[in-house]
């Protein structure tokens, strides 16, 4: 006799992650046969504010789209406007932007590691990883003055320079963080209890990952080498780094990719500090933007698109953001099919969902 | 692969001092660059309202009649725009975060007596200058009229001739 089907709601409030995503899990016994996601619980209408705040002030709104990748959102908006207005920021501004971008990526990935440890119930590992995240936040605070919202982006460059002595002070900190993460890595990638929760859980094949339009580490863990940083925006064209991929395609692979990307970010930051040009950080802008532009940048969670349509006035007509979590939800529904109900929280965490920026 | 991968770290942590700060038992520590809250030096502010116009959230109100400068700290997003734009460098960003409160309070600051006197003196001088300029203008107008009258007379004389 076939098992009876029942629907178990997951979220919008669930202990594994404080953000409101709702998934209807159609289950048979303990197996999920279908997952139907729904979002839309925290829509704030930030995109519409673009018609009410002038285009310079809008940077502050763009930064507030998300609390974790706030620098990237500010960057994406500013990048689009700079392309519309044909502004080329100075080398130093580009390097500092790259550095802050990578610091944000480190902080986001370490945060994710902690959440992951929390999801499979390893609380001391969770606290250990967040100890290092705190160090990254301290570095961000020393550089910009803010821990979460940096308010340092400005159309045409940066609002404030980061002095060289602060930058060189980052080098020993980076070494410490790297050392700490290497100790945690052993627990994540070779502890048998952890492996039992990660290996083979939520497998996504390379073809499916491409077909379902995945983004970021979720895509790279399925063996697809795609990283928008390779397009060379900001100062990435001057940096020496490779795309990190894994052929595992499961939760273990996603863990591996993110841990390696933390080291990679630390390396890029070191390169930035080493090659940092000495010049101004701001090119003055004239007039109002007129035209449209779409840019795609690599956020910690994957490629994020920013579309801006301006018509030569103080207020921009339309801004649109497509976030990586939104792109990853179809693939999440796919990976949930056939998994155990007990693995659902882990799988939801492996896409590193950021619902507040998905709904803006 | 071993079961005791993380045990070493955990064991070490037992003998380390805590990674967290004992706030509020001890003082909170801030970086030099931390954007905490806005302070205004009421000895130098000239109530020009530039900060009010620049603030993206409308947290600042300048009342020139009452000679006060007010800020609603819970609306302020610590963006530093007012500080960068103040022509008198009167505003500054302090390190400490805004104190918590049960209402979205507004803090009013009155100009210091010294600065009030300075502004009053400036206003008096400005008024004097305006008065002087008006006087000048009146005189100029009067003399212009005279010469015009004179010229008109002359031209009339010419006509009659
Ligand atoms: S901009 Fe400066 S001087 Fe002008 S009102 Fe504000 S604080 Fe005072
Ligand atoms: S820091 Fe920004 S939000 Fe706060 S008062 Fe100044 S301009 Fe307004």
SSE order of chain A, one letter for each helix or strand: EEEHHHHEEHHHHHEEEHHH
Strand order within the widest sheet of chain B? Answer: 2-3-5
Give the mean pLDDT of chain B: 82
Number of E-state strands of chain A: 8
CATH superfamily of chain A: Cytochrome-c3 Hydrogenase, chain B
Main beta sheet of chain B:
3 strands, antiparallel
| Shape estimate of chain A | globular
Q: Helix/strand/pairing class of chain B, anyone?
A: alpha+beta
Tally of DSSP β-strands of chain B: 5
**Percent of residues of chain A in beta strands?**
5-15%
Quaternary structure state of the chains depicted: heterodimer
Describe the structure.
Chain A is built from twelve helices and eight strands. Chain A has 360 residues and is of the alpha+beta class. In chain A, the strands form three sheets. A three-stranded antiparallel β-sheet of chain A has the order 1-2-3. A three-stranded antiparallel β-sheet of chain A has the order 6-7-8. In chain A, strand 6 and strand 7 form a beta hairpin. In chain A, helix 2 packs antiparallel against helix 3, helix 3 runs antiparallel to helix 4 and helix 3 runs antiparallel to helix 11. Chain A is globular. The model of chain A has no long low-confidence stretch (mean pLDDT 86). Chain B folds into two domains: 88 residues, Alpha-Beta Plaits; 49 residues. In chain B, the strands form two sheets. In chain B, strands 2-3-5 form a three-stranded antiparallel β-sheet, with no helix packed on it. A two-stranded antiparallel sheet of chain B has the order 1-4. In chain B, a hairpin with a 4-residue loop joins strand 2 and strand 3. The longest helix of chain B has 48 residues. The N and C termini of chain B lie far apart (125 Å). One iron/sulfur cluster binds next to helix 3 of chain B.
């Amino acid at each position: 006799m076939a098992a009876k089907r029942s629907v178990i709601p997951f979220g919008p409030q669930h202990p594994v992650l404080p953000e409101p995503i709702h998934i209807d899990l159609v289950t048979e016994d303990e197996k999920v046969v279908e997952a139907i996601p729904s979002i839309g619980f925290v829509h704030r209408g930030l995109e519409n504010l673009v018609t009410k705040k002038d285009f310079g002030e809008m940077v502050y709104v763009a930064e507030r789209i998300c609390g974790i990748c706030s620098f990237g959102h500010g960057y994406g908006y500013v990048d689009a406007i700079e392309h519309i207005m044909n502004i080329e920021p100075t080398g130093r501004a580009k390097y500092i932007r790259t550095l802050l971008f990578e610091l944000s990526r480190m902080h986001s990935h370490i945060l994710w590691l902690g959440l992951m440890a929390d999801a499979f119930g390893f609380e001391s590992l969770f606290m250990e990883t967040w100890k290092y995240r705190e160090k990254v936040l301290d570095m961000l605070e020393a550089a910009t003055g803010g821990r979460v919202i940096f308010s340092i982006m400005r159309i045409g460059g940066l609002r404030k320079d980061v002095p060289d002595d602060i930058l060189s002070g980052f080098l020993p900190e980076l070494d410490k963080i790297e050392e700490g993460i290497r100790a945690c890595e052993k627990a994540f990638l070779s502890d048998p209890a952890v492996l039992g929760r990660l290996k083979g859980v939520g497998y996504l094949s390379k073809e499916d990952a491409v077909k379902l339009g995945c983004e970021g580490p979720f895509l790279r863990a399925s063996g697809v080498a795609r990283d928008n940083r390779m397009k060379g925006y900001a100062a990435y064209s001057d940096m020496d780094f490779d795309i990190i991929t894994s052929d595992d395609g499961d939760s273990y692979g996603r863990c591996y990719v993110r841990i390696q990307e933390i080291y990679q970010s630390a390396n890029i930051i070191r390169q930035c500090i080493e090659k940092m040009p000495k010049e101004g950080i701001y090119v003055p802008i004239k007039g109002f933007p007129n035209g449209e532009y779409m840019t795609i940048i690599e956020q910690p969670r994957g490629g994020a698109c920013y579309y801006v349509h301006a018509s030569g006035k103080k207020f921009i007509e339309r801004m649109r953001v497509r976030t990586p979590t939104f792109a990853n939800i179809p693939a999440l529904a796919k990976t949930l099919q056939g998994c155990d109900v007990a693995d659902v929280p882990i799988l939801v965490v492996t896409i590193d969902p950021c619902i507040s920026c998905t709904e803006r | 692969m071993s079961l005791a991968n993380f045990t070493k770290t955990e064991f070490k942590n037992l003998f380390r001092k805590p990674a967290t700060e004992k706030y509020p038992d001890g003082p909170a520590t801030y970086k030099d660059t931390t954007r905490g809250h806005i302070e205004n030096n009421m000895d130098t502010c000239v109530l020009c309202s530039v900060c009010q116009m620049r603030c993206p959230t409308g947290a600042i109100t300048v009342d020139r009649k009452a000679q006060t400068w007010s800020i609603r700290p819970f609306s302020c997003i610590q963006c530093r725009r007012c500080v960068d734009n103040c022509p008198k460098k009167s505003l500054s960003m302090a390190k400490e975060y805004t104190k918590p409160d049960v209402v979205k309070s507004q803090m009013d600051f009155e100009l210091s007596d010294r600065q009030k006197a300075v502004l009053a003196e400036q206003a008096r001088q400005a008024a004097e200058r305006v008065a002087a300029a008006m006087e000048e203008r009146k005189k100029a107008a009067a003399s212009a009229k005279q010469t015009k009258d004179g010229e008109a007379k002359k031209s009339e004389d010419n006509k009659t001739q």
